[in-house]
Amino acid sequence: MTPVTYASRAARFRPSGVRSVFDIAMRPGMISLAGGSPDLAALPRDRVAELSAGLIRDRGVDALQYQPAQGLDGTIEAIREVMRAEGVEADAERIQVTAGSQLALQAIATLLIDPGDTVLAEAPTYVGALAVFGGLEAAVAQVPIDDDGIVPAALEETIARVRASGSRIPFLYTVPTFGNPSGATLSEPRRDAVVEICRREGIVIVEDNPYGLLAFDDVPRTTLYARDPENVVYLGSFSKIFSPGLRVGWLVAPPELRARAQLVIEAAIIHASVPGQLLAERFVVETDWREHVRRSTEVYRGRRDALMAALERHMPDGTSWTRPEGGFFTVVTLPPGAPTAPLLDAAIAARVVYVPGSEFMADGSRADTMRLAYSFEPEDRLAEGVRRLGDAVRSLAQRG
Amino acid sequence: MTPVTYASRAARFRPSGVRSVFDIAMRPGMISLAGGSPDLAALPRDRVAELSAGLIRDRGVDALQYQPAQGLDGTIEAIREVMRAEGVEADAERIQVTAGSQLALQAIATLLIDPGDTVLAEAPTYVGALAVFGGLEAAVAQVPIDDDGIVPAALEETIARVRASGSRIPFLYTVPTFGNPSGATLSEPRRDAVVEICRREGIVIVEDNPYGLLAFDDVPRTTLYARDPENVVYLGSFSKIFSPGLRVGWLVAPPELRARAQLVIEAAIIHASVPGQLLAERFVVETDWREHVRRSTEVYRGRRDALMAALERHMPDGTSWTRPEGGFFTVVTLPPGAPTAPLLDAAIAARVVYVPGSEFMADGSRADTMRLAYSFEPEDRLAEGVRRLGDAVRSLAQRG
């Protein structure tokens, strides 16, 4: 080829560790604690097949034609119902349908980030968000968290430090509920504090909430959006409550920002897949979707328990991990001095795969941590996977 | 809301005239010569509904789960078959599935355009491409065309002029076959010349070819990609040969560029809709898709003829238009001195809508032109639409 001259931002798009281990996870005999795939076994396959046929039979060519870029009216209504389950009453003019919440984040980031800006995010944060911010040539300042999520004093310190450096802060990106990868959840008092700090400092909050309905307890949690709908952009998704393959998500934002996000989305994809939007709508309208979510959540809770028990049993003394009250993930931290560099290789050799914690840090730190997903594998395989992982850690320690 | 500070690029995302008239086109009694929607009436609805149910019944939860970001193997094979119909044998490692060819263009442009670069394109060019280039803060230099497409000498002059200005040229974007909006097709000798000029000048060609299979004649046309697969990126789509609502398209590129485009696509949407990909695959594998395309093309040819006859009959003396040999569009140029400014309003008042030619020019020029689409309305409504349009032009001229 004629040597291609890439744009300067091109170097910022690097292969993600999550997607790389996706291929490894497909190998025969491999146990995957890596990808954040939901368990879809509980979905009524024939019923979904019938919904899928019905949407073309009933809607005809409308299901296959170009449609309005904001999203289909019925899909927006279905999203409003999901938002009600999250405790939010959202007007249709605030809702933009997207190709997964990934594109919702991409659109908002495209509108708000100039090169050289510094996005705030949790330490650690969602690897797909780091990909978006990197592609827009932003820096990322990651705010320390504990079991109760972002530490407000640390947030204030980080804001002051970034501003002292001369960099602009376009927004705080956060997964406050059942965080990815941490599994941590922002406590109610800290929700008040984080919302208040950001409002005071004039920093928009982008609240990414794909796991909010997958709670293992009955503790009520109020979205950040509900606390300050004029300063919080909410990102939602059907990926974890129904199907990630559809690639249907949404954002909720003040009307002007929503309308601008639509323009970015039109330039990227024109609009979200119509069969995907219709199938998501029918899932909400024509099935007992809350019952499906409730049953899935029961499955995830059992798996969380199985993973925790296996970690207790198989990991070396001094290993620690978060105990999530919902969602898909925990982060495991190895004891001080444990060997980390070839651990993923050793684990893969032992036929278990996970995502290294360094993937969730913009600076590649935290090599002593691992994200383990309990969403996809059944309980016995989770236990076996952690046994293999424990063996890999111990065998490396002996060699070291 | 806290006053949002938008990024500098945000101002470059402006409402598209094509999408604005989309809403107007929905009004009762309106005849739309505006949108580039394919005619889907010929699609066998029950058969497509059955394919849609079957893909979930047969593939089960795989049809609803996360899948590899390059695209499903079966979809890539189906795309290889469509490319063979275009005369191109493409290896799988060169094919990237995208959410419509819009995202293919967005991904390539993201990798190749730095702010301040100048993209080359036809005058006039696809409005959705202008949206992509604008969002990346590029300038656009539009190269004069005639009935045989890009004028090679004008291309060379434009390259020299842009370079003399100090701006870098990342690529030439072109719809060489049944162009949007022009309807013009690059002649075979000019294909050789354009490919040769760009190779010599080290300028990548991005060949957007959604209409290539919709030819009204039997003239063989070779893609630019087939002439120089190392310097041409090919953009393809199921939107015009099957269904735009699926949002499934692709790019064909040298393997390294393909792999980098995948990273941009992962950051934007993770991957294209799985039900959409599977339905496109089944359309190719399980139906006589070439026969569907042949029959649709017959319909479009009849509509082209009806539109041309109506233009001949109803438009004022001195009006000119292109005569496309395939695709969806013609560009109509009003006689010198004809009033243009409120013409769209007058047309809408007469219940016919089109896209002003200025939408297809980065500088908003060519207010004396209109893009008319004959793809969507049946022949009698095309004739009536042009009659209304002719009346609107004449009534404005009398008032002026």
Automatic annotation (TrEMBL), chains A, B:
**GO: which molecular function terms?**
transaminase activity
Can you tell which superkingdom this protein's organism belongs to? Bacteria
Q: Which UniProt keywords apply?
A: Aminotransferase, Pyridoxal phosphate, Transferase
Q: What is this protein called?
A: PLP-dependent aminotransferase family protein
Report if keyword RNA-binding is assigned: no
Source species: Microbacterium marinilacus
Start and end residues of each Aminotransferase class I/classII large domain: 30-374
Q: Which cofactor does it need?
A: pyridoxal 5'-phosphate
- Which residues, if any, are the signal sequence? none
Entry annotated with the keyword Transferase: yes
Under the heading PANTHER family, the entry gives: AMINOTRANSFERASE, KYNURENINE_ALPHA-AMINOADIPATE AMINOTRANSFERASE, MITOCHONDRIAL
